[in-house]
């Protein structure tokens, strides 16, 4: 029967977090437990706290997530035999275990707050975290969790395939679900699965990681290659393995996303009753190759690292692995360590540059592994195109700008499994990027999933009566206002009144409420922006004019995790400012641009292409539409986010031919 090697894992503070003096919000736990009959059961858990001012104890929340998950697994193992049937264990992974984990986690974070109370009242939101969990038994293995973790299976020949990724229904960029949500336990089932182990199955490894690993790779192929290298590098289960994994993770974060990085690796092997295979002998010392910079000329002496029980130097292994991925494949030339073997040479390929000044035997420098921001819909990139795919995804994560099923594109690994959208009433949480680019900020606690369709409409109006007329139709995701619209609707632009309007919009099931800040200087605008965000942190997006002063205000709000929408955009270059700052959206004035004698449609299409070109998750919101045909024309060009007035909304239903046909149906139904 197949046997599991004790899993191994590590979690490291991201390079960007170290520079900012922030703690690591990731956590990992790997344990060997025992079933009721004494069989060994391996468990590995990873968690990723949201970070940001609102979730200031998320590093504690992620640690408690791993601890409560392992305690819940241990409790179930002590009460239920492993041979009670796979279907029962499958239901356990989908329902019973998640309910126990969330219940125990909520109790744990509440107890932590009681022992160390902070400012304000207790909210589970303060401890928000994701969770990925893998349970490995002699006869089956299973996974469950919620949030933006990834799970990769690596075969003995180095082939890697993505088994689990987050596909969350949002169009706000990256997004994730959280244990702090009221119905978090119901979200686990979509990420749960049980896999029987055939007694004659070959060896394989499971790589469970938080999103910092995947964000550090330019394409999904790169990520699979890196996962395969991590599986091989720590698949030998020797006591020194934990010493090399943190160093590898440090380098991945430093030269990749800058986010916290966490990985856990479990391996199954077929011993046939014998002991585990011996580790391979150390290969000859080889100078490490940097990830993104060339090595010294071959004539210069190079320091060789001290080999560790046959494990190749991290620099060389990562460089070779990522160079292979850069050639356009997820294939990794390695053989499962059963006997002493040397690392295979890099195969020749037209896509790989000549070694040039590299020392003999070293791999050419791979392309940079930094992954740009997620696409406008948070999609993963097509291979060979860096981070962006041309179509805007209708749904993520996968992902905090969180994040409907992703569209398949040529080059995307077919192993990326699609998952159905969550049930109504569940939510996904916009989650921040952790790299050198400005963090977009997570927004956990938003109670609604966003519409799984790619097209998203906001009602551009400040009149509550129009809200009551249109929002119940389900056509709109939310409302957007500004001081001018408030004045036209006879609504005062005051915080107390905006609080009342926000409450009315929320009562109408409004998912997004875009409120514009104001003030005579930047400090006033920032203070008002914070106050607006506090009115309803689950729904409010703060609008900021895209001026130089507005950019400074938006930068501070985004750093605090507040979702920001820039407004009053007239130029293509302005969308790049929004992209650079990591804004959730930018509203461009179609009608007003056309009023200036310019090609409004062409310029908005150019804005969209600019965002796609830099791989930005910022949404382009088309505003100032003058007729329904504007919506149709831009939607056909791929612009999916529009703010429209009630008059334009009525125009969508203004076809006289349709009205006549409907009347005819009624007459025929009545027999007249």
Please provide a written account of the structure:
The structure is a single chain. This protein has an eight-stranded parallel β-barrel, surrounded by five helices. A five-stranded antiparallel sheet has the order 1-11-10-6-7. Strands 2-3-4-5-9 form a five-stranded antiparallel sheet, with helices on one face. It is of the alpha/beta class and 672 residues long. It has 18 helices and 20 strands. The chain has helices at residues 15-20, 58-79, 86-115, 211-215, 220-233, 241-254, 314-326, 464-470, 483-488, 495-507, 522-535, 548-559, 572-581, 590-595, 600-613, 628-636, 646-651, 656-670, and strands at 3-12, 26-34, 40-48, 131-136, 140-146, 150-155, 160-164, 175-176, 193-196, 204-209, 261-269, 429-430, 456-460, 478-480, 512-516, 540-545, 564-569, 585-589, 619-623, 641-644. The model is unreliable at 169-174, 234-243, 277-317 and 320-453 (pLDDT under 50). Helix content is 32%, strand content 17%.
